[in-house]
Amino acid sequence: MSPADAVAALQDALREGFDPATDHQRIADPLANGEFLIMPSETASAAGLKVLTVTPDNPARGLERIQGLFVLFDAETLTPTHLIDGAELTALRTPAVSFAATADRLLDATDPLRVVVYGAGPQAVGHVNTLRSITTHRREIDSVIAVVRSPEGVADPGPFQSILCSGSAEALEATAAANLIICTTTARSPLFDGALVRDDAVVIAVGSHVPDARELDGGLLGRANVVVESIDVALRECGDVVMAIAENALEARSLIPMREVVTGQVKLAADKPLVFKSAGMPWQDLVIAEAAARAFERS
């Protein structure tokens, strides 16, 4: 399925009544050389289980950092029906979630997109590809710039017109000019000064899912519409949110569930940045896996 199809599947699930607050909780279990991520979920029409391993030392071995499998089950009999590569599903799902939450804001505007992506790995590339998929014939993309700690380490520029060094004058200038900033890093502290961000910008942060790591500072979250997948998950797992609240820069009651944005229950203020903070939830994998399985059966 295309990235745009994945975005649409997530939005359709929310509009048809699925509530992420009812989802099963992700389980993280440490291992000697990494960790298991176990993600069970169910909807009215299917059940699913994703098991991933996260192995920080794997890239140095020429192996993927994240590997695993997703099993799709029949909802009534719980019979396994499809087996899907977990890393490929994650690569499709993560940017699809980002743009399911922010597409209305991004597609309502008409000025060309100036995109800055922090990171240049698979999720950075996946977000750019998904953005191109949803904006085709709807909004022009003027520029796509990657910002990384070591530009010389990026062998393939991929979809990026230039690769800038994090913290450089050029990177800060690009960040201040961007109307879409996507953060896909393993950083544990803010990547840039949130005061640089334009009031009309969309900022997506997907790099962390632990309460003591963040990519964005509290000042940015304090002046933004902050959209999250689930308030409970954000307060438990999203360090960007947890630490901003601890600093009294953000109030938990101001968090906006993405379901309310997608269904039109909440209209976001146009004069504030839109920050979408994602940790990844099991229901998202299940929705996309089920849609992909249906497409496979039709092919």
Automatic annotation (TrEMBL):
Superkingdom, taxonomy of origin: Bacteria
GO cellular component: cytoplasm
Stored Gene3D superfamilies: NAD(P)-binding Rossmann-like Domain, ornithine cyclodeaminase, domain 1
Ranges annotated as spanning the membrane: none
Name of the protein in question: Ornithine cyclodeaminase family protein
InterPro entries: NAD(P)-bd_dom_sf, ODC_Mu_crystall, ODC_N
